[in-house]
Every structure is written in C-alpha cells, then in structure tokens.
Amino acid sequence: MQEVILKTKDNVKIAVNGYFSSNDEVVIVAPGWCMTKDSNAFRQIS
C-alpha cells in the first residue's frame, strides 16, 4: 500500500491509499459517512 496525496483544481487535498498491481483495471473504494480510508473494514476490502 502506498499513500498518495491528490490535489483538486481548487487546491483541496485528497489522501488515497494506493494498492498497485500489473493489471490495467482500477477499482475505487470510497468510505461512507463516519468511515475512513484507514479503517480495518476498508483495508480488508482493498
């Protein structure tokens, strides 16, 4: 896992946990209300 910081056009920073492989596909798992990208549930899904 690699933490990546993205920045939007209006300078909002978005922290992303990147799990990279040799596949060309991308899957985005977005946490909902009261969850974080670092929660155990989202790490297991990723």
Q: What's a concise summary of this model?
A:
This protein has 46 residues and is of the alpha+beta class. Helix content is 13%, strand content 26%.
Helix content: 10-25%
The largest beta-sheet arranges its strands as 1-2
What class would the helix/strand composition place it in?
alpha+beta
Distance between the termini: 9 Å
The overall strand count is: 2
Strand content: 25-35%
How does the major sheet shape up? 2 strands, antiparallel
Q: Average pLDDT, to the nearest integer?
A: 87
Radius of gyration: 12 Å
Please mark out the parts with pLDDT under 50 across 5 or more consecutive residues, or reply none: none
Description:
The chain has 46 residues and is α+β, with helices and mostly antiparallel strands. 13% of the residues lie in helices and 26% in strands. It is built from one helix and two strands. It has one helix at 40-45; strands at residues 2-7, 13-18. It has a two-stranded antiparallel ribbon. The N and C termini lie close together (9 Å). The mean pLDDT is 87.
Please give a handful of descriptors for the protein shown.
single chain, 46 residues, alpha+beta, two-stranded antiparallel sheet, 1 helix, 2 strands, globular
SSE diagram, text form:
Layout: E1 2-7, E2 13-18, H1 40-45
Antiparallel strand pairs: 1-2
